[in-house]
Every structure is written in C-alpha cells, then in structure tokens.
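Here is a typical protein record:
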Amino acid sequence: MATTFQTKHGVITVGKPYYLFPLGQVVDLKLIRHENQENGWGVSKPYPVSTELTSDLLNDFADQASKLL
C-alpha cells in the first residue's frame, strides 16, 4: 500500500524506492488532482530516499505540480 497525503491540490502518493542514475535510490512523489482520482493521471518527481518528507516539502511539491496539470 502506497503512502498518501492529502493537500489542497489533491492527493500525493509516495512510490516504492528504486535506483535512478545519478541520484541513487529515489522515491517518486505523485500529485493526482481530486478530479483525476479515477484515472490516476498526475505529475510525479523523484526525490532521494534520504529526503525528509515534511509538510512544507509536500505542499511545495503540490503547488509546483498543480501548475502543470
């Protein structure tokens, strides 16, 4: 089960860790707007697994990603 966070722009899911050169081990944060919940369409961005997922980071990601949707 993926970890999820609610934001004003939609739901952020945290993917499973994988290797991405040159960053090393990363996880994808994916923002899915409320109206896209059924089809799962959203915007994702990799973050190193060592990144602390704070509410500020999640909200900043959601603000940036919502501009692309």
Q: What stands out?
A: The two ends are 25 Å apart (CA to CA). The chain has one domain: 3-66.
